[in-house]
Amino acid sequence: GESVGLHLPTLSVQEGDNSIINCAYSNSASDYFIWYKQESGKGPQFIIDIRSNMDKRQGQRVTVLLNKTVKHLSLQIAATQPGDSAVYFCAEKHNQGGKLIFGQGTELSVKP
Amino acid sequence: EPEVTQTPSHQVTQMGQEVILRCVPISNHLYFYWYRQILGQKVEFLVSFYNNEISEKSEIFDDQFSVERPDGSNFTLKIRSTKLEDSAMYFCASSVSGTVAYEQYFGPGTRLTVT
């Protein structure tokens, strides 16, 4: 069946280091992938997205990479800051209607 | 910046009781969604709503659940007879369009505790 999942449940990094959060998906028909950040007690917050016809997209301090061959998505955060500490979810979307299918989540902890 | 709001932030109810969770989507958005997140688990899609009718619903969204847009601003999720397993965070989201390119904006959530 369809699923979007994450490789690692927790990730601890030193402030200033780069972070890489990974995600595997199984539905090759998905045409849109999104990374969300969820801080404690808050709803998911959009970070960056990528269409399936792209390999890479960059934002401010964040980069998303898509490898369709192995159905793998990653989020790279440059110069990680304490404010980046949160749970990160990948999600996929396809078809009209916009239903999001979320992965399991990775908790990022940034040590000062 | 416009945002999705939800009330209440925390709702405690007894098993078998009816609850209504309320959401005010962003004003120019046309697509509305409910998701839930059981503690420590991933966010799960419940239902999408457009043009005053359900567009899509998940297996979770059974006959105990209903959604309504009673006026021009509110979007509600009703659970008719709550069960212990309904305890979760419930998130409302809205978007301008249902096509893939449009971002869904999430509210802060309502924590539902069924005792």
Topology:
The complex is a heterodimer of chains A (112) and B (115).
Chain A lengths: L3 E3 L3 E5 L4 E7 L6 E7 L6 E7 L4 E3 L3 E6 L4 E6 L8 E8 L6 E3 L3 E6 L1
Parallel strand pairs in A: 2-11
Antiparallel strand pairs in A: 1-3, 3-8, 4-5, 4-9, 6-7, 7-8, 9-10, 9-11
Chain B lengths: L4 E3 L2 E4 L5 E6 L6 E7 L6 E7 L2 E5 L7 E4 L6 E5 L8 E8 L9 E2 L3 E5 L1
Parallel strand pairs in B: 2-11
Antiparallel strand pairs in B: 1-3, 3-8, 4-5, 4-9, 5-6, 7-8, 9-10, 9-11
Rg over alpha carbons of chain A = 13 Å
Strand content of chain A: over 45%
Instruction: Name the chain pair whose interface involves the most residues.
Output: A-B, 26 and 29 residues
The global form of chain B is: globular
Strand content of chain B: over 45%
Mean pLDDT of chain A: 88
Q: Can you tell me the residue ranges of chain B where pLDDT is under 50 for at least 5 consecutive residues?
A: none
Task: For this entry, give a set of tags.
heterodimer; A: about 110 residues; mainly beta; 6-stranded mixed beta sheet; 5-stranded antiparallel beta sheet; 11 strands; globular; B: about 120 residues; 7-stranded mixed beta sheet; 4-stranded antiparallel beta sheet; about 0% helix; about 50% strand
Explain this structure to me?
The complex is a heterodimer of chains A (112) and B (115). With 112 residues, chain A is an all-beta fold. Chain A contains no helices and 11 strands. The mean pLDDT of chain A is 88. In chain B, strands 2, 4, 5, 6, 9, 10 and 11 form a 7-stranded mixed β-sheet that branches. Chain B is globular, with a radius of gyration of 13 Å. By secondary structure, chain B is mainly beta. The interface between A and B is medium-sized, with 26 and 29 residues.
Gist?
Chain A has 112 residues and is an all-beta fold.
